[in-house]
Amino acid sequence: MATSTGEKSLIVSFGEMLIDFVPTVSGVSLAEAPGFIKAPGGAPANVAIAVSRLGGRAAFVGKLGDDEFGHMLAGILKQNGVSAEGINFDTGARTALAFVTLRSDGEREFMFYRNPSADMLLRPDELNLDLIKSAKVFHYGSISLIVEPCRSAHLKAMEVAKEAGALLSYDPNLRLPLWPSKEEAKKQILSIWDKAEVIKVSDEELMFLTGSDNVDDETALSLWHDNLKLLLVTLGEKGCNYYTKSFRGSVDPFHVNAVDTTGAGDSYVGALLCNFVDDRSVLEDEARLREVLRFANACGAITTTKKGAIPALPTESEVQSLLNGN
After folding, report:
1. What residues contact residue 156 under an 8 Å CB cut-off, 6+ apart?
2. What are 262-288's pLDDT values in tens digits?
3. Burial (CB count within 10 angstroms: exposed 0-12, middle 13-18, buried 19+), residue 325
4. How far is CA 306 from the centre of its chain?
């Protein structure tokens, strides 16, 4: 990476930022929870902060409510070194909320309050196009595809970024409760599939999108398309599989004591993007790519060892100490 922040290439993350309300006690239902702690979240925002915490340059594009929570979230982005130039505030809609239950194994269940929330109301004419055009990598999920006008804003932002030469990165980040139906979720997630050059899916998302019970190479490669440079399948505590035009393989996980899996995938994506934003040739060099994926696996693992996504996202020195200790 370049040494001074001014020289670093920009990673722009597009989509939703919200507040997760996480129970003070793990392993209970929402109804049984004695209390909740508010934790800022939203996958695209987590990715932007993950990038910044690792020393990269990041901006977030999205819409928040013109309310205390919305301004709090914008403040958290700025405190974490993420540019907030792409944020709009909606005076008529609230910032999205999600109540999250942590099962005893650290996995999550969600209940969302979005009817509609500000992030869903971002319009194409509100996009900061200059910021989007300056991105070297443009990263997004699929939640912004669920309803208009945000869907049109998402498609416009992708198009503008691509025309300006950005690499498109996609993590569908499936949240089924937000979609009208499973069929609609699959259809819309796949509707922009062939645009992205880097795609990361979890093992569960792979099975959902392919209808298969397997997470083998054949299943993964059924999602391959000609524009892709890298397809990643994350396997939680089993590491990850990678696929390119020329090679494929798997990278082992780091074993840690997982407390909360929130943000682990976003941390992994942030680490990945940071490591090729200035040098895309990494994607064609298997030895270097494996090093990057080992680094990304370490980031994801560290993120599971603390509650909440953003507080748990690691710095480069924390990642290096885990890498050196193994």
Report:
1. 124, 127
2. 899 999 999 999 999 999 999 999 999
3. exposed
4. 18
**Token pair for residue 87?**
């944020």
Report domain extents, the chain. 10-314
Q: What are phi and psi of 31, to 5 degrees?
A: -65, -35
The residue among 228, 223, 234 whose CA lies nearest residue 201 is 234
Q: Which residue has the tokens 């407390």?
A: 259
In the chain the beta strands, taken as DSSP E runs, fall at: 10-14, 18-23, 36-41, 57-65, 83-90, 97-102, 108-113, 135-140, 167-170, 198-202, 230-234, 240-243, 248-251
Q: Where are the beta strands (DSSP E) in 175-259?
A: 198-202, 230-234, 240-243, 248-251
Alpha carbon distance 111, 94 (integer Å): 16
Residue 247 tokens, joined: 């090679």
Whole-angstrom distance, CA of residue 130 vs CA of residue 259: 40
Residue 194 CA to residue 171 CA, distance in Å, equals: 13
Please say whether the beta carbons of 272 and 291 come within 8 A.
Answer: no
**Does CATH number 3.40.1190.20 belong to domain 10-314?**
yes
Q: What is the pLDDT of residues 133-160, one digit of tens each?
A: 999 999 999 999 999 999 999 999 999 9
Using a 10 angstrom Cβ sphere, with 0-12 exposed, 13-18 middle and 19 or more buried, the burial of residue 91 is exposed
